[in-house]
Amino acid sequence: MGDIEMRTNKKNSGFTLVEILIVVVILGILAAIVIPQFTQASTEARENSLKANLQTIRSQIELYKIQHNDDVPGTFTGVDFEDAMTDYTLVTGATCLSTAANALGPYLQSIPENPFNLLNSVGDATGTLGDNSDGWQYDTAENDFRADDNVDAAHITW
Fold it and tell me: Phi and psi at residue 26, in whole multiples of 5°?
């Protein structure tokens, strides 16, 4: 009789197919609820990063203007926007060594990536804004710095 009891205990010690299916269905329902929340959080995080980058760059452009007699970066002949913002400059806008007398800047360590298209290049106002050809677009005539991605039209209005 002891052998029969052992066989019965072994047979009842595992999970049934119905129990496993119930657990799988519950996990599927939880995943269906949680995964969209992570996707939305990811999009919000990229939007917040984009807004922060825009705010930082625009404030550094204003600082550049103040220190360079109201000239905007990238208007000095031979110095593009990136060089003007990431190198040391003179009041005239020319790049210089950090040891030069009256050296100003740098205003940014590097041009940050647009978190939606992962580009950090800066196009000028001749391109189509929102065409995703650059990470950013800077109109020196209007002193207007904007995101240049085609993910959401709202990005180019921030």
Answer: -65, -45
Residue 50 C-alpha from the chain's centroid: 5
What confidence score (pLDDT) does residue 154 get?
84
Domain assignment present for residue 59? The answer is yes
111 neighbors 85 (Cβ within 8 angstroms)? yes
Phi, psi of 147 (to 5 degrees): -75, 145
Domain membership of residue 146 (yes or no) is yes
User: CA nearest 124: which of 112, 133, 113, 111?
Assistant: 133
Residue 66 pLDDT:
96
In this predicted structure, the answer to whether residue 38 has a pLDDT above a threshold of 60 is yes
The answer to the question of residue 81 being in a domain is: no
Give the pTM. Answer: 0.76
